[in-house]
Specification:
The structure is a homodimer. Chain A is mostly helical. Chain A has a three-stranded antiparallel beta sheet with strand order 1-3-2. The longest helix of chain A has 24 residues. The first copy, chain A, is globular, with a radius of gyration of 21 Å. Chain B binds a DNA duplex through helix 3.
Chain lengths: 255, 255
Amino acid sequence: MAKILKMRPGDNDRSAATTAPQDVLREDAVTFDVLRRMREDILCCVLKPDQRLRFGELRQRYDTSVGTLREALSHLVSEGLARTEAGRGFTVAPISLADFLDLSELRVYLETRTLADAIRHGTDAWEAEIVSSYFLLSKLSAPRPDDPVGVKREWGKRHKRFHDSLVATCTSPWSLHFRSELFDQARRYHWLTMIHARSRRRNEHLDLRDAVLARDVDLACGLIEKHIRTTVEQAASEVPGLTMETARGARRRKG
Amino acid sequence: MAKILKMRPGDNDRSAATTAPQDVLREDAVTFDVLRRMREDILCCVLKPDQRLRFGELRQRYDTSVGTLREALSHLVSEGLARTEAGRGFTVAPISLADFLDLSELRVYLETRTLADAIRHGTDAWEAEIVSSYFLLSKLSAPRPDDPVGVKREWGKRHKRFHDSLVATCTSPWSLHFRSELFDQARRYHWLTMIHARSRRRNEHLDLRDAVLARDVDLACGLIEKHIRTTVEQAASEVPGLTMETARGARRRKG
DNA sequence: CTTTTCGAAACTTTCGAAAAAATGTTTACA
DNA sequence: TGTAAACATTTTTTCGAAAGTTTCGAAAAG
């Protein structure tokens, strides 16, 4: 039947031939969009650590209402990307080397745990996505400090997609959930490293990809552990101002 | 100085003699209170798994506005205690044996990790709080199915406080954070077990307390691992309707 | 008798204004 | 000159209503 081609008689001009309500899978709710954008801005340090998040400014920047912003901020607090003190509004979560060390230690466990499980449950589709996402990542060489922001952002996205693809077939939802949260946290530090890093690292992702595709659990887990630890060391030595003390000193206003 | 007693002269009737703004430490924001109450209601299955959370009913139950409810619900989604699908509102997160098994496996790691670290960094104050919270817990014997709800709730609180006290001196904020989230998740299953359990377990908490106070890392970790695993087994065998399949069957649309 | 279409009711989402609280500044007084 | 209260401003928190979706059920078409 040519059911699909049918149009409703009343369709004049306002809604440009949209599909029927049931066919539309709305993943584009305003709240989600604002949340996504804010998260990205924190991850990429557009909103800087410890920065105060005033509703006035945010309302302008994201062109939305207070209520929606509150909801998004509330989410970010749960994710550990923002802080709030009742009556005193929201701030971007602080960063510190101590925090990076702590979350990286836990990441080592969660990444190896999920990766090992994913390899054991790997499928053809899983392998295909790994090949595909690695290809996309390799098209962009690791960004250098003077690369434009757009390139850094795109690399960040592809980097995340690649790492996500590795563990996609892991059968533990909770492990995947926490892994994902920690990966996002780490992205803030990766961004700082990208901006400041002088040294260049060899392509660890290729080795990782091959070990995973070869279903070598021990090798793959060893590689990702080293990958995480190396990243911390690089950040510790090359990102200026990333000290063990929390960055709360700057909390004082203007003066 | 008697600063606290001072009152502002201009206070007529509208604001009933509040203390100076700086002295008041507001931890009682409405949003937090609503969030706390909703979380408790989900944990204690007053709001049942998969139950639809309509704003109309919630507004009545918690006596607050839609916006505030939305913010609280948003938080609960981040914590994994609720679900939402854009345009279709919120539901209480489903439960299943598979979920309990999954989260318990991760709990074993996080509880042992945090406990080992806490023991190594234990202080006198830490020991004191363990003694104190164990004492309070032991005053209430493990609730039986026919005990009143109030007793079960109180026992749940003391149980949480005891377990929190064990790991209080752990130095890894991220581990503590995730441990706490998983502990809350497990509480939903503990509640179901309390309601249905026929068998009684011997007091595993006393052994745990003593092992921890004796700073015996291996023994303590072994005990808590067994504690978690036994809890899962008890739930699996004694809670009716806790199957491997998720309870999503009823979700299908009209026909 | 089944399937589709339409419209009303229920519910969710979004918004901006009013209330409450915190911060900053000035003024009064010793 | 220092202290603290009173005032003014900024910012956060809370609320309810308007706009937009989805769901449900009845009527029409196949």
